Amino acid sequence: MALTVCERTNEMTAKLIDGKAFAFTVREKVAAHVSRIKEEAGVVPGLAVVLVGEDPASQVYVRSKGKQTVEVGMASFEHKLAADTSEAVLLALIASLNADSAVHGILVQLPLPEHLDSGLVINSIDPAKDVDGFHISNVGLLATGQKSMVPCTPLGCLMLLRDHHGSLAGMNAVVIGRSNIVGKPMAQLLLGDSCTVTIAHSRTKDLPGVVRQADIVVAAVGRPEMVTGDWIKPGATVIDVGINRVEGESGKTLLVGDVDFASASAVAGAITPVPGGVGPMTIACLLANTLTACCRALDLPEPEGLTA
Ligand code: NAD
Predict the structure, then answer these.
(1) For residue range 285-304, what is the model confidence (pLDDT) as tens digits?
(2) From the CB of 223, is ligand 1 less than 6 Å away?
(3) Residue 214 included in any domain
(4) Which end of the chain has the smaller Cβ count within 10 Å, N or C?
(5) Active site residue: 29, 68, 109, 193, which one?
(6) 185 and 111: one domain?
């Protein structure tokens, strides 16, 4: 009964998981480690970002990545190519970045223009420099519980969950969404931390009933406010990966997640907001992965708490 009253009044009882603040601490740790590597090994960790075409959202992401890379003391190499760049030219650029010892991480901004084969392009990156963790070798290493480069968004979610719970062992986790970028690697990471994992998707029967079993819900669907408070087990932790642009009452564009924050935060034990939850963790984890790649290349100890 108390739950129903809470839901009706949309009174927030959940702890807010502040991804923006946590991402700041990740960047601080990365920056401290970068300055130590510069002093002790005389090396500047470097991240190369390749953007093909002029997709406005991709341009914003690439700018933001470049700015944050420089802010933590790393070298940023931006390669902007025309939308009609041939596959051969792009592959030649990636080959030169693979061979460049000043480049420790390579990211090819997705989506690529349609005439380019994304799989072929991503798999041409040296897996040791694949800071997005999308290379088939890294996917296989993660799936078999071996040391790999881990996709940034799920890594960010894992860091937030570990920070909130400590151990995740034995918890029931439901990941909604089975994409290669978020859903599947997220499920692998939760399995690696000994959760009992369910991957739900567009064909799942009784999705609300499945989600109601979860101690941890990770929503990565791309449907605005689909997960409502009555799907959430009281006290569960809710990680909202969704970033959806919707028109607000005033006609202004608003960002909302895949979770209906008002109703879910009245039932959950802890919840990430949108914006300010998972979003800021993604670039922070990209920087962490670049640092990890640099440490591995130099055979230095890896930074603690910044990898899976
Ligand atoms: P995607 O479109 O590749 O995958 C969506 C998944 O949701 C699919 O597996 C599909 O089966 C599932 N799905 C679709 N409709 C469903 C339904 N009605 N019920 C249950 N499952 C359903 O998307 P993605 O790349 O995984 O991204 C998901 C969301 O996360 C998007 O909103 C995206 O913008 C956001 N995202 C955020 C970040 C970040 O940095 N925070 C990074 C990547 C993606």
Answers:
(1) 999 999 999 999 999 999 99
(2) yes
(3) yes
(4) N
(5) 109
(6) no
